[in-house]
Amino acid sequence: MNGALPTGSKACGPTGQRIVQLHPSLRCNLCCEHCYSSSGPEVRGELDSATLCGLVSDAARMGYQVVSFSGGEPFLYSGLGEVLRHAKSLGLRTTVTTNGYFLQARRLEPLLDFIDVLAVSLDGPPELHNRLRGSPVAFDRLCAGLKSLRGSGLYFGFIHTLTQETWEHLAWMAEFAAASGARLLQLHPLEMAGRAEGRLGALCAEGDGLAKAYLVATALAAKYSGTMTVQVDLLHRDQVMRVPAMVYADELVRAWDESAPADLLGLIVVEADGAVVPISYGFSRRYQICSLKEQGLEQGWRDFLDQGYPEFRRLCHELFKELVSTNQRPLFNWHERVVARSHLSTGFPGTVHSPAA
To answer: Rounded CA gap, 76 and 28, in Å?
Structure first.
């Protein structure tokens, strides 16, 4: 439920999966208060589909298995269908995360054979959902789209941004998700990045709020076992102490250049300006793997492996020691913590710096 590695899998991060996450555009029809990327209607510009198809080809050769679309709103990205088709042609699994506005049958039907999982954002009951989405009709549009989604037969779930004011609605959301036919309810704690940093600082779930959400999610996972997976994106101190590889804090005993890249770094993220970074959107550009506007992923990885990867692992080791300290709270959002830590680092010679770092 909470990111533990599947039995028998190699450790390559908390999910145990090998994922390429794509943010090809920050264009969105909404201005959500909790948006980590500050996407919105006024944002223009996108990565061309040929560049992303090249990236996906490189990623497949490097051992990655899943291509995950986010944004911005993916259904507003002009190259969505082309890149999804290319990924499936290489045998990769695909996921798309959407705000639920564009789930009409005419949009879904051409993509049914190319999407393995569709994740729909859900912020809570109607009034709360509409407020956070900045639209009085957001919930109604989501519900209308669910009719088409159920009829399509596509595997889908909901993803929720957990805040101090939403954890008490988790039971309602689980019931709504199950009644809608969802197979997954993913709970991801609010991160202080993008638009959320300026608007929702007081609502960041911490301490007792995370503990309450964790306990409720555990109960919901048991209640809906067999029909819907309930996942909360939190780690417990005991987990990472038992399996340090979950947070890249294990000691490598084999030569790095003899391992598949996806075994060394289970999640890479492509941002809308072409930067490829480890782990999560917003990771400091000091640890940038490459810029797709300058070089391909495979070429960039070779340079990253020499210097950037050892520094990335050092960063994770430092954070690990801090998180397992007995004076720290036992539950934490590791992705948020490691991104924040990356911006505190002093960096290292020869790396790429940018104003966003």
So the answer is: 7
